[in-house]
C-alpha cells in the first residue's frame, strides 16, 4: 500500500511579490485581511509591509488619502516608535480595525447625527426663532430674502463624531403653504484646514460664513428637491467616510417670492442619517 504526501504550496512564497499583492488586494470581505495576517508570521509581515489593509481601506473610502500619519495611543509608551517596521504594523492595525468597524453588519444607524450648527451664509432671525418649535424639533433655518432666484445658500454643521460614515441626508421644507424650498441641494463633507481654524470655530458667530476655514474632501452631485411638504431623503451613491466631522449643505436656486418684500426665501428643517 503506497501513500503519497500531499504537496502544498504557499503562493505568497511561490509567486512574485506583485502577483501575491494583487491577489490579496482583491479580497471582498475586509475581515479576511485580519485572517490572512494571522496565518503565519511571514504572511503578517507580507500584509503589513505591502500595506494591504491600507489599500483596501483607501479603495473603499478615498477620503482617507488626506491622512499623512497614523498614531495609536499606548498607555505604557506615550511616544510611538517611528521605525519603519513599527509604523507599518501600526498602520495595518488601525486600517484593518477601521475596515472591520465600517462593515455594514456593524453599522449602528443614528437618526440624527448633527451636533450643532456652525455657520450659515445668511439667517433670517425673525423666522429662525427656535423657541417656538421646541427642543424636540430638528434645527430650523431660514435665509434672508434675495432678489436673485439663483442666489445659493450654504449651511455648515458639526456632526456628532470626527469620523462618521454618512449614507443619506434628510431635508424637510418648513410646513405650511406655500413650500419655501430650494430647487436643488448639494452636500460636502470635510474638516477644518488647521488646528487653529478648528479652535476658531468654537467661538465662531453662526451669522458669519465659515466656508474658507474648511477643506471639503467629498462633494456630492446636485439632487433635485421636490416642492413638497415632506421629509425628503437624499441617498448618497455609496457610503462616504467623513474625516473631520463637518457637513456643508448647499441650497441651489429659489422657487418662491414673498409678496411683502418681493424677495426670494428658503425655509427648511434639517436632519442627517448616519449608519
From TrEMBL:
Superkingdom assignment: Eukaryota
F-box domain location: 21-59
Pfam families found in the cross-reference section: F-box-like
UniProt protein name: F-box domain-containing protein
